[in-house]
Specification:
This protein is of the alpha+beta class. The chain has one domain. It is built from two helices and three strands.
Amino acid sequence: MAIIERSEFKGKPTLVIKRSEDDKFPFSFGLTKARLILENLDEIKKFVAENEGQ
């Protein structure tokens, strides 16, 4: 399970997703990208399903 942390960048809220506590390259995004992800979640799920075994 991933580790989710709240942070901020230039005074704006962000989410940081880590594979583990010592993940050197965490995935982070702000509110604008979070909305974009939510609006396109079905397409993201489809992409994962189509490419899972590669």
